[in-house]
Task: inverse folding
């Protein structure tokens, strides 16, 4: 469904006129199947978020391409309404001047899918993420971190996408709220039969929600493992990474 094909990305190092470039992604190829939850794990700076931005079409790869159902995500029409995203920083993800209702409505408006009588749709989405209809008129500063992230999730599912990309989406939430949001994400994935790309440095969270994980190191795929075989990873780096986090 989502195919990453030989993707490379580099950024200019230092100032604008510096000729030196830092390669952030090197020949990255993998696939996410329909309905699959694919984890992308790896240490800080290994290129996970860069890959996420390429999948979302926010940036373009220098080489290689990303295909969604056989079509390149370079074409905006391929992405819009089909691939959503939820990021770590929920406070800056929602416009502070938007009510919850307006924030959830935004992607639908962009798709031209909005009707004036679709309050019931907003209420249904709120209900699906565990918030009551009274949240419709609240502003972001009136929400807790967990509630704000639930609003971001409602907005991500509003267009009924086939795939959602999460980049450290639960990392800023505290322990018990993380667990509740993970449960919610599991339920929603079943309900909507979506695929997830779940970028995280939290291997425990990945082990809980993902079917398979891709382990990144210095912009390259070190190893890919089905979740039930996570303990049996072969490469030294993957072993170390797991040991570091699983203590
Ligand atoms: N727009 C940019 N311009 C220049 N360098 C960048 C840019 N975006 C990312 N980088 C560099 O690319 C490398 C990978 O960054 P990236 O954010 O993808 O890592 P990450 O795996 O998501 O890390 P973390 O776990 O800390 O979020 C880093 O060295 C970063 O400094
Ligand atoms: Mg990142």
Result:
């Amino acid at each position: 469904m989502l195919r990453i094909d030989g993707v490379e990305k580099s950024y200019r190092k230092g100032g604008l006129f510096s000729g030196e470039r830092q390669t952030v992604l090197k020949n990255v190829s993998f696939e996410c199947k329909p309905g699959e939850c694919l984890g992308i794990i790896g240490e800080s700076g290994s290129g996970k978020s860069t890959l996420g931005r390429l999948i979302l079409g926010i940036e373009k790869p220098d080489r290689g391409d990303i295909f969604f159902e056989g079509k390149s995500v370079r074409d905006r029409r391929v992405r819009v309404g089909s691939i959503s995203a939820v990021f770590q920083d929920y406070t800056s993800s929602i416009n502070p001047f938007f009510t919850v209702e307006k924030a959830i409505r935004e992607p639908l408006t962009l798709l031209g899918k909005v009707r004036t009588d679709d309050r019931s749709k907003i209420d249904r989405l709120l209900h699906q993420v565990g918030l009551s209809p009274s949240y419709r008129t609240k502003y972001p500063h009136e929400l807790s971190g967990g509630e704000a992230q639930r609003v971001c999730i409602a907005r991500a599912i509003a267009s009924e996408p086939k795939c959602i990309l999460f980049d450290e989406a639960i990392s800023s939430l505290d322990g018990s709220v993380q667990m509740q949001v993970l449960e919610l994400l599991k339920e929603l994935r079943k309900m909507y039969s979506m695929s997830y790309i779940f970028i995280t440095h939290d291997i425990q969270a990945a082990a809980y929600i993902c079917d398979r994980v891709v382990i990144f190191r210095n912009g390259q795929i070190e190893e890919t493992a089905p979740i039930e075989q996570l303990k049996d990873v072969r490469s030294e780096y993957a072993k170390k990474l797991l040991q570091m986090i699983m203590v």
The chain has a mean pLDDT of 91. The radius of gyration is 18 Å. Residues 89-160 form one domain.
